[in-house]
Write a structure and sequence with these properties.
The complex is a heterodimer of chains A (405) and B (84). Chain A has 405 residues and is mainly alpha-helical. Chain A is 78% helix and 0% strand. Chain B is mainly alpha-helical and 84 residues long. Classes of the chains: A mainly alpha (405), B mainly alpha (84).
Chain lengths: 405, 84
């Protein structure tokens, strides 16, 4: 910690107190407030149940209750936990919960909590709304909400961990917008905060996220280096799913970077984790990776089987974007084989993908180009690879267009 | 294991006991009067308690926040007009 005394040349004043009394009183004050905090946490736990059971106007009436004004801070914390749990399973619900958290934070009593805590809670509520909107593909709203989060942060005590959280969400938004360098720069700031705060696990997560920015930008070597650094810092027991996701990304960067044998070895080391976590969707992603590695190693039949299985599993779950990406990876297999019959069949099998609701119009336009090229037997490996890169980058950016030239 | 939602009174006592020398050093370096120090540390302990579940290293957080608040306090009091 850097110390800068008011006047570094002045001698220490020996008339300053030893603070024995002050610290004792401060500790007593905090202890007496703790009972209140614990009661608030209990009240918030029952309040959140009531709130979630209601809808629309009834919910707003409840938010305006006195209880929320005085117990809302703990409620905001609980809502954040709920939002994190629904981000990827139900993005629309996450947005709804985040809007509720903003409403609750707006009602907090500054006399009761103090400006610092209230503004910090508001900053976090807006930040969560921003991130939820980004996941729900509403990038404009995400940007506005994150701007509000910054404004509230400045009005409070500018807590460093809150700042790092906002930076991290902003970086995710930049990733979604294809602004990878800016995303990496923001993450550097977040990483520095976590390092200073000795928050090793969070530092690891931010490094893994920075690796994602490099991965999206096609800089697989840097992405690999960063994800390894991140992996050395995260606490597996705290979030086992982060470990699996990071190991998955590592194998992905190795594969896309052309290091297929190393990717194969890393995959074998990770297989147990996938199986241990036993999440069906992770096993499907594992199959996808196996297909990509087999393709890279020239084992085209094996690649075809694995990719077909993975694609069918995504179609079955209505996850159109991933199904579309795998279809392009399958198309790469057929392009390499020179198999126009299978290529046409693949294009015909894409009908359910076109009907899935998570593909935005620009992505559908790109896939239409692919289908037309398949029909005309004009698909090349180059076209398929460019299209796959586009689709990956355009996942959460509905405005990004595919350049077919 | 997820962190608990708030510290126990013993958590706070232990924390303050471990950090007492550093806390006193910061307060002395920024020449914070006893009454102000009491308010400042009370306020920070309350903030810390509310944020307990999301602060991975409470000791580091408290020292960083105290340094920042003590510096702000010192700067504010030097800007204020004096009667003498």
């Amino acid at each position: 910690m850097t110390k800068r005394r008011p006047d570094p040349k002045a001698p220490f004043r020996d008339d300053l107190p030893g603070y024995e009394v002050g610290l004792k009183v401060a500790s007593g004050n905090a202890r007496s407030r703790l009972t209140e905090i614990l009661q608030e946490v209990d009240a918030a736990a029952s309040l959140i149940g009531e709130l979630l059971a209601k809808t629309g106007p009834e919910r707003s009436v409840l938010v305006r209750a006195e209880e929320v004004r005085l117990h809302g801070l703990a409620l905001c914390g609980l809502l954040q936990e709920k939002i994190r749990g629904t981000w990827f399973s139900d993005p629309a619900q996450a947005v709804e919960l985040a809007e509720l958290a903003v409403e609750v934070s707006d009602r907090l009593d500054t006399d009761h909590y103090g400006v610092a805590l209230v503004e910090d809670a508001r900053a976090l509520a807006w930040a969560y709304l921003g991130n939820s909107s980004r996941i729900a593909s509403d990038l404009r709203r995400a940007e506005e909400a994150l701007r509000s989060a910054e404004e509230h942060l400045r009005l409070g005590d500018e807590d460093e961990l809150t700042r790092a959280q906002i930076l991290s969400f902003q970086a995710s938004l930049h990733n979604a917008q294809g602004r990878f360098e800016e995303a990496a720069r923001l993450l550097d700031q977040a990483i520095a905060v976590y390092r200073d705060a000795k928050a090793r696990h969070l530092e690891g997560r931010a490094l893994i996220k920075k690796a994602t920015a490099f991965g999206y930008a096609g800089k697989f070597k840097q992405a690999e280096r960063l994800v390894r650094q991140g992996l050395s810092r995260i606490n597996f027991l705290e979030e086992p799913q982060v470990l699996v996701a990071a190991r998955h990304n590592l194998v992905w960067y190795l594969t896309e970077g052309g290091h297929h044998e190393e990717a194969q070895r890393a995959l074998e080391e990770t297989r147990g984790l996938y199986l241990g976590l036993a999440e069906r969707i992770n096993l499907v992603r594992l199959r996808w990776l196996e297909g990509r590695i087999a393709f890279g190693l020239g084992r085209l039949n094996e690649a075809e089987t694995a990719l077909r299985e993975a694609r069918d599993a995504f179609i079955e779950r209505g996850i159109g974007f991933d199904a579309a990406l795998i279809s392009l990876h399958l198309a790469a297999v057929y392009a390499k084989k020179g198999d126009n019959v299978e290529m046409k069949r693949l294009a015909a099998e894409m009908v359910p993908i076109f009907e899935s609701r998570d593909l935005h119009p620009e992505a559908l336009t790109a896939l239409t180009i692919f289908r037309q090229a398949a029909e005309a037997e004009e698909v090349t490996l180059g076209l398929v690879e460019r299209m796959a890169v586009y689709l990956q980058r355009a996942r959460r950016n509905p405005e990004m267009r595919f350049d077919s030239k | 294991m997820p962190p608990s939602v708030a510290p126990s009174p013993e958590d706070l006592d232990r924390l303050l006991a471990r950090l007492r020398p550093s806390v006193v050093e910061i307060l002395r370096e920024w020449e914070i009067p006893e009454g102000e120090a009491e308010k400042l540390v009370s306020e920070l302990l309350v903030r810390l308690s509310y944020r307990w579940s999301r602060i991975p290293n409470p000791e580091q957080w408290l020292l960083t926040a105290l340094e920042k608040e003590a510096r702000n306090h010192s700067e504010r009091s030097r800007k204020e007009p004096r009667d003498d």
